[in-house]
Amino acid sequence: MQLFYSILRNFLKPDKSDSFLRFLKIIETLVSKMLSLLLVAVILFTIYDLVLLLISDFFRQPPDTLRTSLFDIFGLFLNILIALEILENITAYLRQHSVQLELVIVTSLTAVARKIIIFDVKQQSADDLISISVAVFLLALSYILIRRDRRQHKE
Questions:
Q1: How does pLDDT run across 32-42, given as a tens digit for each residue?
Q2: Terminal Cα-to-Cα distance of the chain (whole angstroms)
Q3: Which site in 6, 49, 103, 129 is 20 to 30 Å from 155, CA atoms measured?
């Protein structure tokens, strides 16, 4: 128990703030690396799932069912692309130790575009489509503003 109190006292001293920040940076980097490894596993599993879906659709089912599962196939493709973009976000963070807002917005645009591509008119309302459209518009506007701001700062 004495050891715990001594560690706590050293941890709370004002002059130890630099070591605390270094500790936080180490934890942050460790968590980012663990997330990227887990995301690679998710991507590989999703690719495996996509291959199984394609094999079952092409070889085991009648040709008409391919049309009905086309949205599932597109959804899986886009899930993989979104996961790759998230992995790119994590990688950029590990390289530069800052969040790349432009990458985050592009990833969000891809995710919302996925929603539009797999949008089922029979099961969802027009309000859903309108809200998705507003999200696309606002994300695109954000992307344009960030790009313009970045170009102005480079000049």
A1: 999 999 999 99
A2: 58
A3: 103
- Residues spanned by the domain of 43: 16-154
| Mean pLDDT, range 118-123, rounded to an integer | 78
The total of structural domains in the chain comes to: 1
pLDDT value at residue 34: 95
Answer yes or no: is 46 within a domain. yes
Within-domain flag for 7:
no
- Residue 69 and residue 66: Cα distance in Å, rounded? 5
- Could you tell me if residue 101 is inside a domain? yes
Residue 83 is predicted with a pLDDT of 93
DSSP, residue by residue, 85-128: HHHHHHHHHHHHSS--HHHHHHHHHHHHHHHHHT--TTTS-HHH
Answer whether residue 1 is part of any domain: no
